[in-house]
């Protein structure tokens, strides 16, 4: 009986750790993809220097928020939602800047 309970507790803890780490990976990977979109837009001429600089500043702010959220070693659901909201907003900003018909 004790072995079954211990095994169940271990499985729940491992599942929780795996879930939290997958959120961290997803947030990090999305950050990487957005950086790549900004660099591609600048090199193709879709983004001006000022637009790229502003978008990069927004990405740095999200990165700082991510570091702060993980400073205690865990990412709470509220922190995850906040980071995803920031990334959604940044993604819209990147799209709008790349499609506003301004060129260098």
Key structural traits:
single chain; 104 residues; mainly alpha; 3 helices; 83% helix; 0% strand; elongated
Strand-helix topology:
Elements: H1 2-44, H2 49-69, H3 77-98
Tell me about this structure.
The chain is built from three helices and no strands. The protein has one domain (23-98). The protein has 104 residues and is mostly helical.
Summarize the structure.
With 104 residues, the protein is an all-alpha fold. The protein has one domain. The protein is 83% helix and 0% strand.
Beta strands, count: 0
Helix content: over 70%
> Shape from CA axes?
elongated
Instruction: Tell me, rounded to a whole number, the average pLDDT.
Output: 85
Q: How would you sum up the major sheet? A: none
Low-confidence stretches: none
Number of helices: 3
Could you say which structural class the secondary elements and strand pairing correspond to? mainly alpha
Whole-number count of domains: 1
Beta-strand residue percentage: under 5%
N-to-C CA distance: 70 Å
Radius of gyration: 19 Å
From N to C, what is the helix and strand string?
HHH
């Amino acid at each position: 009986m004790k072995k079954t309970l211990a095994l169940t507790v271990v499985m729940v803890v491992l599942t929780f750790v795996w879930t939290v780490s997958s959120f961290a990976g997803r947030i990090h990977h999305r950050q990487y993809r957005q950086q790549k979109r900004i660099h591609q837009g600048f090199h193709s001429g879709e983004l001006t220097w000022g637009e790229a600089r502003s978008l990069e500043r927004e990405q740095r702010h999200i990165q700082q928020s991510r570091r702060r959220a993980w400073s205690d070693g865990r990412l709470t659901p509220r922190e995850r939602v906040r980071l995803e909201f920031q990334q959604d907003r940044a993604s819209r900003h990147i799209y709008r800047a790349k499609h506003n018909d301004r060129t260098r």
